Amino acid sequence: MQAAIFDGSHDLKLTDIPLQEPGHDEVLIRIDSATICGTDQHILEGKFWAKPPVVLGHEFAGHVERVGSSVRNCQPGDLVSVEPHVYCGCCKPCRLGKPHLCLDRLAWGINLNGGFEQYATVRMDTVYRVPEGISAEEAALGEITGCCMHGVDRVDVQLGDVVVILGGGAAGLILARLAELRGAARIIISEPNAGRREQIRAFGYADVVDPLSEDLAAAVEAATNGGGADVVIEAAGRPETAAQAVELACHGGRILFFGVAAPGKQASIEPNRVFARELTIVGSIRNPFTHHRVMEIMPRLRLRDIVTHRFALGDIADAFAAAHRGDGLKICIKPNG
């Protein structure tokens, strides 16, 4: 089968590799859709760790081809979504009920072969059957949607909240959908990419601000009668928007650092503002115990149009170039055509 291999360089190498037959507790999946995450881009840029040689792609879904003798949660032909993390179960975070902070974590697409290949063999406990009516492309968004769900849980969006989201890519839109379902009264999205702003409006969000030409702080002030946002979600992964999040929050406001800033980057934050307004700042990483919930709620999320670009596996270099340019919302690799 064909696979896009990360060998430690800045480009993926299209290579023929052996298909791995499933063990007794494993599932062989014929990959239909694998979407590009910002983390994948960071890996190729040398800003995020992965263990070469490895097949990248940790957001993927496909149809079950074969199952091991112990597998009971799926059968050949099922459309399934993969939660790509494997935790050790023995380190302190695992034993305190926080496995997503595992100190010895493995993950398909990071140090185990992931979704940018024609077939993937994964453990049965990471496989989730997809509800009727949900496409494989939507199912591939299960991992990022689970991460967004964990973030919204962490920042505790409540009924009537004004929510500001800094960054209107795929994650920003999914965060908006989840905040809406939790009862947010108003959602303001800041996004500098003109094409994305049009797509955000097409999704039904009218409060979209261009931070390069508009005064976002003034827009938030006007929307909240000068009070500031109840919740601010940093979804761009940039130090300047992390600092901006603190400035936009109201007294008693909550701030979520969701976007992945490159390690070592620093943001300048006024401690007195955090103190005087009694702000709560939380981080959010991965998707602990959310994938099942995502599959349950997926039919209500209306994510079908999040995938805006599709590429064959042989054109994966072009796909990453499009992702780097910020084309569309979510870019999908179709390994089997």
Gist of the model:
The chain has helices at residues 38-44, 92-95, 136-140, 142-155, 170-181, 194-202, 216-223, 239-248, 271-276, 291-301, 316-325, and strands spanning 2-6, 12-16, 26-35, 54-55, 59-67, 79-82, 85-86, 106-107, 119-123, 127-129, 162-166, 186-190, 208-209, 229-234, 249-257, 280-283, 307-312, 330-334. It is of the alpha/beta class. It folds into two domains: 2-141 and 303-334, Quinone Oxidoreductase, Chain A, domain 1 (Alpha-Beta Complex), CATH 3.90.180; 148-283, 3-Layer(aba) Sandwich (Rossmann fold).
Please give the structural blueprint.
Elements: E1 2-6, E2 12-16, E3 26-35, H1 38-44, E4 54-55, E5 59-67, E6 79-82, E7 85-86, H2 92-95, E8 106-107, E9 119-123, E10 127-129, H3 136-140, H4 142-155, E11 162-166, H5 170-181, E12 186-190, H6 194-202, E13 208-209, H7 216-223, E14 229-234, H8 239-248, E15 249-257, H9 271-276, E16 280-283, H10 291-301, E17 307-312, H11 316-325, E18 330-334
Parallel strand pairs: 11-12, 11-14, 12-13, 14-15, 15-16, 17-18
Antiparallel strand pairs: 1-2, 1-4, 3-5, 3-9, 3-18, 5-6, 6-10, 7-8
Helix pairs in contact: 4-5, 4-10
